[in-house]
Amino acid sequence: MNADFVLLNGRIATMDGAGTEAEALAAHGGRIVALGTVAAMREYVGPATRVLDAGGRRVIPGIVDSHAHPDAYAVRLRTWTLLSPDRVRTRDEVLGTIRRVCASLPPGRWGAFYRLNERASGGYPTLDELDAASAGRPVFILRTDGHLGLANRAAFAACSVPPDAADPPFGAFDRDPATGAFTGLVRETAAHIFLNAIHGADTEADIAEGMEQVQDECLSFGITSVANSLTPAKAIRAYQRMRRDGLWRMRMGIIASGRDEPLIPHLIGAGIRSGFGDDWLRLIGVEWCPDCSTSGRTAAYWDPYVGTPVPGEPVPNTGMLLYDRDDLIERATAAHKAGLQVMIEGVGDRGIDFAIDVMEAALAVHPVSDHRMRVEHCCYVTPPILARLKRGGFVDSSATGFMDELGEAYVANRGQGAMRHMWPHRSLIAAGVPAPGHSDFAVCRVNPFTAIGAMVTRQSGTGADLDATEAVTPAQALAAYTTLGAWAQREEQDKGSLEPGKLADLAVLDTDILTCDPAAIRDTRVAATVVGGTIRHGG
Question: Which of 49, 143, 172, 236 has the most Cβ atoms closer than 10 angstroms to its Cβ?
């Protein structure tokens, strides 16, 4: 039999249970049919076979990013402006970018900006500074965590939010403690008022068009599968349109959004269960987001935040939760009984306890042994929480991307001692609690290797000490983005490792991340990415 695709001269980490390595593999019909020596796999080469010579480089299974926001990223790539620290390093640069963009916008358009990290870019601009830079246009800046934003006075007016407006449920308009006037900073559901005003104009075509860029970026980093967290109905329709038109070059999992109020009840009513779809587009589960942001000082903890409070935040501050407990139990139980995999965000220890409370209640009503319910992000895992995760069979869906990009803010806001239990992957592995890793892009960058490196070195990108007690091996870190990522969305029969019968999804790296100096992992580049036996990047 001639194969459709053959990879030769690789150092293939199959990531199977035995830790097998191979030199070459062959695929037919998008799936692996054989692995072995170069000589053995040459037997599968025919006139029409696509052959990729790995040149002796490390080959890994395609990265599975099990929690990200590609739909929002797709739109922001097209019409928003990036304010990440690699683009703007000072407050003046932030304001200069706003001034430049607003001057070029057509009439009626908002100035929309994202991924501001105030700790790395000179602090939050004041309301007066925003107004001066925006030339009268409504401006909204989404902080890098996606939970807080900055709005100027024109934006408040455009959204009909008067100066004496009451805080919305589960949100806040920050106010100057001395004057009571808006500072411009808006938290959680208050930020959604402005996000909804901007995203309300998004179309399915906008999402589909932006996804071309998102796919290119993901594939350039060896990512072959992404799960779209909190996917709204509009994006689901866009993704089905892309599937119909043959536009998928990577694999997409849908985690339906509890924020899109009618969506999950409609899935339940239609009898659609987790797993519905195919290898390119599949429903993974459903998700609610009751917890918030540690770097933005809103995530729910039992003990107060440390460090300098942002003007307008409560003092003492233990964060906030965004759902009523009984209400969320009712929602999650209905979804669980309908065969939908339940995922609930928990970041701080109080938020994680809240998520587990809800999932335990759903399981008490409808016991299922292999439920794979997930606590999303699941950052501050204290020993009592670790015991609860283990006892309940819950998945720690770990926001490892935060380690690299937001680690410095975690240390500043929670204290150095808290790092002992922040993303504690060594303890999770020892306890047998499955903990896949994810980027949460566009909250953090798409690149998985910076996070994999941080898991091994326990240092953030700025050098913050995340406590080496919880460092893991490179192979364990890679497993979080391959085998565990696939398992956490019930796709372990198809992806996550390179074995006969599984999808021929893989990446060829310029660095052997399993044997190199751990500090070099973060700089890894991808020489080629293959999806279903087709070279989609490099080669």
Answer: 143
Model confidence at 312, in pLDDT bands (50, 70, 90)? confident
Bridge partners of 530?
506, 535
pTM for the full model? 0.94
CB of 196 within 8 A of CB of 343? no
Nearest to 449 by CA among 434, 436, 439, 463: 439
- Reduced to 3 states (helix: H, G, I; strand: E, B; else coil), residue 281 is strand
The residues facing 81 across adjacent strands are 113
Phi and psi, residue 109, nearest 5°: -90, 140
The residue to which tokens 């490179």 are assigned: 474
Instruction: Dump pLDDT digits (tens) for 388-421.
Output: 999 999 999 999 999 999 999 999 999 999 999 9
Residues 6+ apart with CB under 8 A from 328: 288, 290, 344, 358
Strand 111-116 relative to strand 81-82, pairing: parallel
Q: Which of 173, 179, 203, 221 lies closest to 439, judged by CA? A: 221
Residues 293, 149: Cα–Cα separation, whole Å: 12
State which fold the 75-199 domain adopts. Diaminopimelate Epimerase; Chain A, domain 1 (3.10.310)
| Residue 232 falls in which region: left (phi positive, over 0), alpha (psi -120 to 50) or beta | beta
What are the residue boundaries of the structural domains of the chain, listed by start? 1-62+496-539, 75-199
DSSP-based three-state secondary structure for 245: coil
CATH class of 1-62+496-539: mainly beta
Q: How many CB atoms lie within 10 A of CB 278?
A: 9
Altogether, the residues listed in the chain come to a count of 539
Distance CA 256, CA 340 (A): 10
